[in-house]
Amino acid sequence: MNNALNPIEPDQTISLSEKYKDVLAKLDEGFRSPDMTPPSKINAKDIPAKLRECNQWVCWKSNPATDGDTNSIAPINPRTLRNASVTDRSTWSSFQEAFDTYQSNSDSLAGVGFILSDDDPFVEVRVSNCRNPKSGNFSMLGWLVLDQLGTYSELSHSATDIKFVGVMDAKFRNGRLAYPENEIEINYSARCFCITGWTISGGRDVRDITEALLWIQDIYFDLDPNDSSYAKPSPLDVAPDEDVVEKACSAANGDRFWELFCGGIYDRHFDDNGADIPFCRLLAFWCGPNRDQIDRIVRRSGLFRPKWDERDLIAGTTYGDVTIGHAIAAQQPTFFHWPDNRPKPT
Questions:
Q1: Phi and psi (nearest 5°) for 220?
Q2: pTM, full prediction
Q3: What total of structural domains would you count in the chain?
Q4: Least confident piece of the model among 18-27, 83-92, 129-138, 163-172
């Protein structure tokens, strides 16, 4: 790792897409080939049994957009074809009843949906606008969440979003966080979400994602730009930059660090902003609240780009300043303690 901080050549870039390339190739073929797409456009056989066994199903249709908003989803009672309520179980049904009703009324109904309730352990995570439906490429943010959750995941009807369904042993708040290109949304109650069955996770079952949700909320939802760490000066370097990178690469999550350091799939995806905070958060763990050292390593990584130095004309801060501040605020007070007997950087 002595040359770890040399500029990254394109052929050195590690791509997470290799991990899922066979599944994605089959999925893309399915979306392009009418022979592989069921008439209902719902792949019922791959919808997890844990969901199909629940009597929490409805049909749905799309409400036209108003005032520039995106279309909203209207849940429909499969028995009456009237509006269903996300808080009234008497308007829900079994999966089979909802699916049969949809197939019999596909001219007016758009699909089937699952109702999340306070009485069940299920949670939905959605990453919006993270897939280019023409090329099939995912944004870095989409890949990071896909890799972290490890539960049932599927494409949306638009083929631009990834939806995840897991179970949890704690209640997280419903939340939504928008980025310039993507949006992360977490829902666990009073919510209807559409199901396609077009899995991108190789048919994974619904799994416990409590720890992964904590990771997502720590990084993406619990960021306070007014945190006092923003005003703190940088301490002395904890170790030479090369040693920080070598130590980070040898850790249990070293593959993820190296993927981010190399720029991930930067040249093949349409959003990189989602990778900046996770990378800087990892650096904050190893460097401590040392803004200068984190900045230096980012500048020598494959994620560095001109946007890093773009300055907000009103606040006077750069995109890089704010990103590092977010990462330190999210990471503290947990930083790696380097041995006191290490040679100090010169």
A1: -105, -20
A2: 0.58
A3: 2
A4: 18-27
